[in-house]
Amino acid sequence: MERRPHLVLDGALATELERRGADLRDALWSARLLIEQPDLIRAVHLDYFRAGADVATTASYQASFEGFARRGLSHDDAAALMRLSVRLATEARDQALAERPADDARPAPLVAASIGPYGAVLADGSEYRGHYGLDEAALIAFHRPRLQLLAASGADLLACETLPCIAEARALARLMDEVGARGWISFSARDGGHICEGDAIEDAVAAVQGHDSVVALGINCTAPQHVAELLARARTRTAKPLLAYPNAGETWDAQAKQWLPSAECAHRPFEDMAMDWAAVGARLIGGCCRTGPAQIAALTRRW
């Protein structure tokens, strides 16, 4: 990060897997394919690296000991699948590096082990609402086993993402301190000033920016039109690198279970909006739901 002004993150994993024919109608979501189609996960990672991504985020967002146990898997089997999520991204990176021309001097890409919120394990959309009814101590107890495993999995860093509330961000920052890991904290937001549970983005950033384990702070899985304002507000409370990887601009209709187009984003390319995020300080930029290798390739051409 000190040598390069920007890093390009990858794009969506789950919605890209769906675009390629995977059926993710399951409480495990993309983690289901760790069991059924791991080769497809590796292929998506590889295509993002080929598109120029500097960071791949693993298919562990929805993975948890509790979720796999409901599927009838043992603790050891669940642990093996979470380690597999890191190995698939690492294997894709190795292949991408082997394909590079000899004169390509770019640093090797990174693998970020995804740690989704408690709400993702509930599989009821509460990562976009918060209000779990759990205090910080309970959230630490929930996240500790998975975070410890992923921190020791060989990933370069952790991606604590789509967090709707301050308590969960603090819990994950404390756990990263506890195990000596490093990673980013990324919030989901409801508008240009507030994370999903309702707290101001300034307060959310301030709550965790003092932790040395937190190497970057930002926003993901949020409507892109809100991101520039959110980042500008976040910058008033932290000097850490900012990151942004919002959705492509469509809105999820939970009742109809389909993505609906957004008039605000329909006539502006994703990579153009990303320049606004860079202008207010984002140094790590990529995409979340409904973005794909094409958007990541377009971003890399800007840098």
From TrEMBL:
Keywords assigned: Metal-binding, Methyltransferase, Transferase, Zinc
Domain of life: Bacteria
Domain annotation Hcy-binding: ranges: 1-303
GO biological process: methionine biosynthetic process; methylation; S-methylmethionine cycle
Molecular-function GO term, any one: zinc ion binding
Cofactor: record remark: Binds 1 zinc ion per subunit.
Positions annotated to bind Zn(2+): C221, C288, C289
Cofactor entry: Zn(2+)
Pfam families: S-methyl_trans
Name used for this protein in its record: S-methylmethionine:homocysteine methyltransferase
Source organism of the structure: Ideonella aquatica
Gene transcribed to yield this protein: mmuM
